[in-house]
Amino acid sequence: MVIPIFIYNFASEIVSSFNIYSIMKKTILTVFVATTLMLSSCMTSGFGTGTTTSTGNSSGDVLTSVLGAVLSNVLFGGSLYDQSSMLGNWNYNAPSAAFTTEKTLTNAGGNATVTNMTSKLASSYNSIGINRSNTSFSFLAGNKFSAKVNGIAFGGTYAYNSQNGEISLKTATETIKGNVIRTQKGMGLMFDATQMTNILQKEGKVSNAAAVQAISQLAKSADGARVGFELTK
């Protein structure tokens, strides 16, 4: 950085006027230049302005990334959708699993447990035949929804609580209660063991009883566990 010549000359005149020795003159000039550089740097970085400009990842970015990874596996206290953001057509993208709270997640073994659960879910979903083209949920204005699971269509009305992510899907025959959470790619729609079994067997007419049982057991494998679908638009 170049120091304006008039600032340097001004400092020199001040020092000379007091007839200070040469070595002290150099010292004061050095301090003056360093201070000027520091102030200039602070103004450039936005110090005191409430604005920060950065070309790299700050420690705050790293912290946000870590928290996001953890909270994506926690239903209550995680990142939620408001109802207007949920509207539209959502297709199955991947299996999804989570825990109701950070405590239940920790007690179950942490994020590694969720990874293991989703891996097992993927195997069961594959054996059933669940894929992007035959499994989807559409949330419409007026609290109406339509869905397909395993290619079987159903629909009705829904109620969503954006404060805690709880959702109720009311069909012609039952009310299915679940949880919605924001994931890295889209939306997680998850259920406990009983509700997931109802989604697959009563609504999706899945005949692979062994696969449904395996999915149900995963949801029962630890306190607070939930299983379901990651959906994307």
Structure description:
The protein is an alpha+beta fold and 233 residues long. The protein folds into two domains: 41 residues; 162 residues, no CATH class. The chain has an eight-stranded antiparallel barrel with strand order 1-2-3-4-5-6-7-8, surrounded by four helices. The longest helix has 24 residues. The N terminus is likely disordered.
Summarize the structure.
The chain is of the alpha+beta class.
**What's the N-to-C terminus distance?**
49 Å
Global mean pLDDT: 76
Low-confidence stretches: 1-8, 14-71
Largest sheet: 8 strands, antiparallel, barrel
Shape: globular
The portion of residues assigned to helices is: 40-55%
Keywords:
single chain, 233 residues, alpha+beta, 2 domains, 8-stranded antiparallel β-barrel, 8 helices, 8 strands, globular, disordered N terminus
